[in-house]
Amino acid sequence: MEHYNMNLTLKVWRQKSKNDQGGFETIQAKNISSEMSFLEMFDVVNEELINDGKEPVAFDHDCREGICGMCSMHINGRAHGPWDGTTTCQLHMRAFKDGDTITVEPWRAGAFPVLKDLTVDRSAFDRIIEAGGYISVNTGNAQDANCLPIDKHNADLSFAAAACIGCGACVAACKNSSAMLFVSAKVSQLALLPQGHPERKTRALNMVAQMDKEGFGSCTNTGACEAECPKEISLTNIARLNREFIGAGLTTEK
Amino acid sequence: MLNAKIPAGPLNNKWEDYKGHCKLVNPANKRSLEVIVIGTGLAGASAAASLGELGYKVKAFCFQDSPRRAHSIAAQGGINAAKNYQNDGDSVFRLFYDTVKGGDYRAREANVHRLAEVSGNIIDQCVAQGVPFAREYGGLLSNRSFGGTQVQRTFYAAGQTGQQLLLGAYSALERQVALGNVKMYSRHEMLEIVKIDGKARGIIARDLVTGELERHFGHAVLICSGGYGNVFFLSTNAMGSNVTAAWKATKNGAYFANPCFTQIHPTCIPVSGDHQSKLTLMSESLRNDGRIWVPKKQNDTRKASDIPEDERDYYLERRYPAFGNLVPRDVASRAAKERCDAGYGVGTSKQAVFLDFAAAIERYGNIEAGKRQMGNISKEEIIKLGKEVVAEKYGNLFDMYAKITGENPYETPMRIYPAVHYTMGGLWVDYELQTTVPGLYSLGEANFSDHGANRLGASALMQGLADGYFVIPYTLGNYLADEIRTKAIPTDHPAFTEAENKVKETINKFMTIKGTKSVDFYHKKLGKIMWDKCGMARNEQGLKEAIAEIKALRAEFWQNVRVPGNEKEFNPELEKAGRVADFLELGELMCLDALNRRESCGGHFREESQTPDGEAQRDDANFSYVAAWEYKGDGQYELHKEPLVFEECKPTQRSYK
């Protein structure tokens, strides 16, 4: 692979705090190597800002391996940028060329308030999990793991749903700021496994109720969430959640 | 004298006996006992959830925006358990023995045996939580092999095992949050331990969003904050992984054990330039199917595909025929360094070796064609089938490699090189996981206890969950049973004020230096010293130089670091400054420990102590002990030794030939 260096113009959202109005700032990024990751490019920019006596750009990041779900930049109008199935930290600068202008914003959703610059508050996702994203089994309650054979097809589907990293790109990509893909991934993971069946109905009802309470929008099936999901979580999970939810609503006794 | 409080009796009865005789706390009393948990990775989340289920009042802290992001999430390959589902001769004893041997006889037998005993329960618990492990067509769980063993005991979920296990523990934790048993403090960092009458009684934490300092009381404090690999700046750890919680514990009287035992993982993506912020692991599970080689000719610049079979040196298979590509990590890493140092490295930097899947792709293709009874098909079709099998097993890893390097590993071999990955050293704990400070415990990678001088693959996840789910619920009760008369201490107690003032003072210092260099500048410098002189190979002269260099760097840091912004706001640079300040102290202790241990063992390779064919040479007569260091003021430490007694595993020269 050929490597090259480039100079870029960044238009970055700067916002001092939650209550600040915020706005775009133009920053020049010089001598950026095509081998850098997108966040390493930001490291270089921040190092220069610090050396110039300015405040570096605040952004969330941690594992930089595309698995923790912490990084969250809206790049040129796309959640996590131009590469499909990729988190911001795994996006590399060879996606860009010399002279490009890159617009970088935080996730935009009422339920994800901005804390500072590109950092948002995603604690709403934790509260949705608290509403039912688990199987109620205390430590020590379990039987031998192989007592419960699980059809490989369902196990694989469950795993595919469980691959969600909770980054919030689905919400950021959605014109309604809906969290349906996130919620459906967890509901599907557990609905597809026999261990998840005892709490199946209440789980779907309670998680959806919490999602609404947090202020996420409704799903209108545009599919932007699936298109932007870095883990390529399938839209069929939303269909499954709808079935689970309607079924639970019709048959639950509470 | 260090007392590890190992129960008497035969090894395989110790834990049963302990559980049968430890003190219990009745449910009504549990409700008024408060426990603080620092860190929400596998150890912290499983401990917080399990203690919450028991009825204790738990407060859990993590610096990330959600407990689900802790770095356990990035573990790829798998988790070991002595289930013997494969009928290949596995047992609790085998797992115990492999772990002690793999750790090069520097681990405590009783702890390791307990770990092996509870390993099976972990798999059961995780499956019950809905963790989607890989399964066979019959619906039962699948296993694979990892380094340092000859049985298949590793359970996995594609290359995302850590993620699935952590999300399991996280969901159990969130359930307890919903039930009101656990209060979760995300975006909070612990910055000081509060001790009252010699016991750990709470912490000072900083709310990372507002910058406010908070006081929290606990009858006990659990440090589950992971390892300290980021002292090297470049490692496979997450950017935020740090030693701060464990280091504050050290400065408050907890001993730090075997700090020089660090694990360099053999298969990581090589460094590409000065901008590099972290290194990415390619799971050890790839060594099940990948073959590692370098050209037989020095400075060979041909493409991998242009180098014929008989001009390739499969050096692990050559040197270690019995274990081949599946030798333990320390052995594989040193072998790669040896080849590269000798001029056989590949790629532009020459600091890399090949990890090649061509043979595996063809083998799997043939098996698949046979299964589907496809008869005579072309080689292209076989390769296509083989690639599909490999994609199912390792797809996410191959994708990650392609994104980072821009190369397609299905077509050309991966380039890999060793990188800092895990730290076996950590807070010294006794059999009950208690540090030398009463009421202060340490679980998971943050403690030192189970992996000796080298950890085997797929054992970190096992240890984190063993400590959190199955050990601490018993051993903590044994301590708290004597605390039922201790009422919650109000946080206006002078000890809290004093601890908070200490934190304030440090923060003020950072904000007033207003120097000229960023925190990262110093972190990178420290990392380079550590990697060059306390990395894969160490010697007396280098270590002495490193200690002097670190002292000088630390002094400069406190004179000249620049922390922008202010302390009463969200300020990532201030967070980093605190962590790097602690690394600058720990780094010196690591070198001191490495200097003291004039033997080679596991990941610690002293050039002065090797066999004629270049293998690590232990010195059991002089160094069969745990080195536990007591902090005695700036740069001063006192060494305490815990002798290691081996009743079941008689130490021998480790051989994987």
TrEMBL record, chain A:
Q: Report a single Gene Ontology molecular function.
A: electron transfer activity
**Cofactor(s) needed by this chain:** [2Fe-2S] cluster; [3Fe-4S] cluster
**Which InterPro entries does the annotation name?**
2Fe-2S_ferredoxin-like_sf, 2Fe2S_fd_BS, 4Fe4S_Fe-S-bd, Beta-grasp_dom_sf, Helical_ferredxn, SDH/FRD_Iron-Sulfur, Succ_DH/fum_Rdtase_N
**Example of a GO biological process term:** respiratory electron transport chain
Report the superkingdom from the record: Bacteria
Q: Which Gene3D superfamilies match?
A: 3.10.20.30, Alpha-helical ferredoxin (1.10.1060.10)
Q: Which family does it belong to?
A: Belongs to the succinate dehydrogenase/fumarate reductase iron-sulfur protein family.
List the protein's name: Succinate dehydrogenase/fumarate reductase iron-sulfur subunit
